[in-house]
Design goal:
There is one protein chain. This protein is of the alpha/beta class and 306 residues long. The protein is 42% helix and 16% strand. It has helices at residues 11-15, 25-38, 60-66, 84-97, 113-120, 124-140, 163-176, 192-206, 230-240, 271-280, 289-302; strands at 6-9, 42-47, 76-80, 104-110, 145-150, 154-155, 159-160, 180-185, 218-223, 244-247. An 8-stranded parallel barrel has the order 1-2-3-4-5-8-9-10, surrounded by 8 helices. Strands 6-7 form a two-stranded antiparallel ribbon. Helix 4 (84-97) links the parallel strand 3 (76-80) and strand 4. The N and C termini lie far apart (42 Å). The chain binds 3-hydroxy-3-methylglutaryl-coenzyme A (HMG) and magnesium ion.
Length: 306
Amino acid sequence: MSKRVRITDVSPRDGLQNEPGVIATADKVRLVELLGGAGVDEVEVSSFVSPKWVPQLADATDVFAALRGRKPPGVVYSALVPNEHGMRAALSVNQAAGERLIDKVAVFTAASETFSRRNTNATIAETLERFVPVVRLARESALPVRGYVSCAVQCPYEGPVAPERVADVAARLLDLGVDEIDLGETIGAGTPESVSAMLEAVMSRLGAGSGGAASAPLLTLHLHDTFGRAADCVRAALRLGVRSFDGAAGGLGGCPFASTPARRVPGNIATETLARVVIEEGYAVGLNPEALALAAAHARGLRAGA
Ligand code: HMG
Ligand code: MG
């Protein structure tokens, strides 16, 4: 089984989407460049979602424009798209750049109906319908598609989510033509036990992530660290064969459902913590620790009140 673990840094997207303050486009660009320089395998750079829903990422096109001609070799840049509208905006970036600046797009749905409606104003089935033209357009441009399943362990509105529901949604995404599955532990409520139960259900349904079948889709685990258990969940996932994780430099993010004005809870698992845990467990990552520390310091500096 492979000893190399793939790391995607989602701080420019997931980390910044909830920030209350205005963050300059140039600071976002700098974060992406520092992450690429640190050797992460992939950077989720921004979202082509409605600016009314997520004003913080309304400058996605500008961020990508500033990155033209400067992408380090080997780094994948990805962008979140919720529908055909967002997909066309993402494709325009590549057309305007005259290069493949966006290498991959990510669609997102959930294993909880309530969360799906709150996040995208659509049922799970409706989100999947929206993805049909996204996947078609991605195929035409030879862009791979990642499919997120949020609330993979627990929903902030509905509570615990049955692992079989997560496996169902993941299977439906793959049926649509999505290339990879990303399991979002959205609110950080998971434990090693509940994350393992979810992963086992998904893996047994998809045959994914085990490093076994060559045709198995890549399975990524996306953890938030709200209650400080994300590192233990990474260890449990590694034991089950997961070899791809999302993190956010500096632990950026912060679940809006768990934070209070007085105390802001931690966000995504910090990429530097993720890398440390993966190495402690005997696996390899492609990261330069000093360069990652610089990226994390820059990321932390972007937080409101930093
Ligand atoms: P809607 O209001 O239902 O959309 O939003 P609509 O199709 O009815 O369109 C309404 C207006 O939005 C129209 O404009 C559209 O043109 C426009 P108007 O006529 O009113 O001027 N519109 C768009 N504008 C820009 N970009 C677009 C777009 N689509 C429509 N792509 C929609 C539906 C999905 C767009 C909205 O709900 C939305 O943008 N939601 C995004 C929510 C979001 O970004 N959440 C965070 C990311 S998910 C996440 O963080 C979880 C994850 O990290 C994993 C985990 O932790 O679990 C991935
Ligand atoms: Mg997230």
